[in-house]
Amino acid sequence: MTNIAEMPSAEKPREKALRYGIRSLSNRELLALILRSGPKGGSVLTAADELLSRAGGFSGLSKLSVAELRQVRGISDVKALELTACFEISRRALQERAWDTDVMENPAAVIRWLQKEIGSEMQEKFMVIYLSPKNRILSSRVLFVGTVNEAKVWPREIFREALLAGSSRVILVHNHPSGDPAASMDDIAMTRKMIEAGKIMGVEVLDHIIVTGSSWVSMAERTLMGMEDMSEDDIID
Predict the structure, then answer these.
(1) d(CA 133, CA 140)
(2) pTM of the model
(3) SS3 letters for 127-150?
(4) 192 three-class SS
(5) At 211, is the secondary structure helix, strand, or coil?
(6) Number of Cβ atoms within 10 Å of the Cβ of 38
(7) Cβ-based neighbours of 159, under 8 Å, separated by 6 or more
(8) Of 87, 116, 126, 152, whose CB is crowded by the most CB atoms within 10 A?
């Protein structure tokens, strides 16, 4: 593998980015730009290739811990932290965009944030988003971890937080680690339970969104907030 020092100046990632823009770089070149140097006697491009191969691409790279990044030759603690900082900046940018909007008017921004936040998690997580009267996010919390069903999701936890946040409307969210966002019968039954509990507490459940790393389902959009009008394509056993 050719070292960057041996490459023609115009082909080096830094010079190429300055001349043609950051989007001109390939994935390996972009990663090499962040890493700056490779292992002793080796190329930074080799380290970039190994990282991308190990992670299966950028989407998987953001899931690697500092310890896992450190397993690649040439990746020090500092470089591993710098990489995770890049991913954290991306997550926070998406969060800011989602929180600074009317979630009902701009659901796409919220979905992008949720996919980054919990969509790719390998364990099922149940989050509640607490909204202001103008549908802006006041707060969000992961309240339950593990298989989501009626027995494990407690209304009192959800609505206690709503009262503390001063929120009269909420959106339920959870991820499907399987990668299939289709609602299960447990998902639907649990949602109906929360809707009824919310009516008693004076808190409206606007939606229940199921996310994965690359897809999502809005139960309100699919008319799954009730048990009527359900098609077989919307439900998994």
Answers:
(1) 15
(2) 0.77
(3) EEEEECCCCCEEEEEEEEECCCCC
(4) helix
(5) strand
(6) 21
(7) 197, 198, 201, 203
(8) 126
